[in-house]
Amino acid sequence: MSDEIAGREISEEDLKNMSPEEIAELQKQNCIFCKIASKEIPAKIVHEDENTMCILDINPASEGHILVYPKKHYMILPHMPDDAIVSLFKSVKLMSHTLLKAMQCKGTTIFIANGVAAGQRAPHVLIHVFPRRENDGLVQLPKYEMNDEQMGKLKSVLRPYINQVFGKRVKDAEFVDKNNGATKKTEKDEDHRHKEAENKEHHKPEVGKTIKKDNKKSSDEKDKDDKSTKNIDLDDIARLFG
Amino acid sequence: MECIICDKKYEKNILYENDDFTIMLAVEPSTNGHIQIFSKNHYTILEQVPDETLGKMMAAANKISMLLFELLKVHGTNIIANNGVPAGQKIPHFSIDIIPRRTDDNLKIDWALKPANPEALDSVHRIIEEGISAPESKPIVEDKPKEIPAEKSIVQEQQKKMHESDKDKRSNYYHKLFERIP
After folding, report:
1. Same domain (yes/no): A123, A192
2. 3-class SS at B24?
3. How many domains does chain A have?
4. Which of A104, A132, A160 is the last residue of a domain?
């Protein structure tokens, strides 16, 4: 009830005077996907857990189109902390796997749109997972010709920042040295930005820990994973590559 | 097994790599700034990638997407994983694509909004629910996924089921699958 009242009574002028937090709260109250998560609005729920909803899209790209989304209201993916993304993608993988067997398709597409320009239609993070079939005409990626010069330019723009975000690699030392001047200037901004991000997310130390754990695990688990997939027809799907 | 990614045929495209993933300029770019993240270990499709690695790759994809917004001043990004040949996956090594979008790029990557027939939706709902409740998919959503990797528990669960009996033949995906093989 209160949601509807809030929706009706707030004028554009009110909106201008509202803080970003208040606007976010308002959006949350009016968010159809939050209402589905709280069961105020019915939907075809195929799966849910503590943090995640998986529902059928009522405007499917193909039969079996599932929307996987966090129960918590995040407008865009960049707002989501890493651990929430990790937990979300466990469900994405489960849904893709389920579609492969239940819908008997040999491929799926995982699709995320960030921003209206990319085709985002709802103010809530949604991961689209849908079955793909030969020549279904969906998600056709065009080709964009790039020459070496353009690629070099792109690399020089991105690389210093990527190294800052993920940590420098020995291999890139030479490259970073050359651009030392440029990277130093931006370091402050970057640091600031990351501190902000960390404050919001509180997860960076955990990420570091899990990376170490995973390194040890991954080699052991790799074999097991390979074995596990042999039982399933996933191998057939993987073998379709000529 | 030969793989153009594992064999580093596109080393010049590499922007960054660690023990989990490699970030590179797309092998076949769709727009200016198209980035691909490949798993470090060779997995052909999504279902073979361990949850933890997938999570890290996605978190990285999100960070790259944020960088593209800031550095290339793009208006949006698509994060796409085309999984399997019918989905248009060209390289047999699992990857996540981050495609920068501009408002005037005129790309039609998404699909037309077409409401589904309610009955069709009902029947798909049933089929998928059955698929999820099939015995081997349960362990993936268990309480302590870190201690027992999902893939492993699927196998254990499955082997148990296989050995037990054919009681739940109806709901068992593998039995259905094997029955179909002549």
Report:
1. no
2. strand
3. 3
4. A132
| Closest by Cβ to A108, choosing from B83, B120, B131 | B83
Structural domain containing residue A179: 148-201
The string of pLDDT tens digits covering residues B4-63 is 999 999 999 999 999 999 999 999 999 999 999 999 999 999 999 999 999 999 999 999
**pTM, rounded to two decimals:** 0.72
Residues of chain A positioned with their CB less than 8 A from the CB of B99: 118, 141
Residues of B in Cβ contact (< 8 Å) with A122: none
Asked if B155's CB is within 8 angstroms of A224's CB, the reply is yes
The residue of B5, B72, B85 whose CB has the most chain A CBs within 10 angstroms, and thus the best one to mutate to test that interface, is B85
| Side chain identity, residue B133 | S
Per CB-CB distance under 8 Å, the chain B contacts of A210 are 52, 56
Judged by CB atoms closer than 8 Å, whether chains meet at B141 and A63 is answered as no
User: What's phi and psi for B28, nearest 5 deg?
Assistant: -125, 90
Which pLDDT tens digit goes with each residue over A87-138? 999 999 999 999 999 998 989 999 999 999 999 999 999 999 999 999 998 9
What CA–CA distance (Å, rounded) separates B125 from B131?
A: 10
Among B29, B43, B78, whose Cβ lies nearest the Cβ of A113?
B78
Answer yes or no: do B151 and A225 touch at CB < 8 A: yes
Q: Rounded CA gap, A37 and A45, in Å?
A: 9
Residue A94 CB coordination number (10 Å): 23
**Beta bridge partners of residue A55, listed in sequence order:** A45, A67
Whether A130 contacts A61, CB under 8 Å: yes
> Do residues B79 and B21 touch, judged by C-beta distance below 8 A?
no
Q: In what order do the strands lie in the sheet with B35-39?
A: A45-48, A52-56, A66-70, A127-132, A107-114, B76-83, B95-101, B35-39, B21-25, B14-17
Based on the fold, state whether residues A43 and A71 are members of the same structural domain. Answer: yes
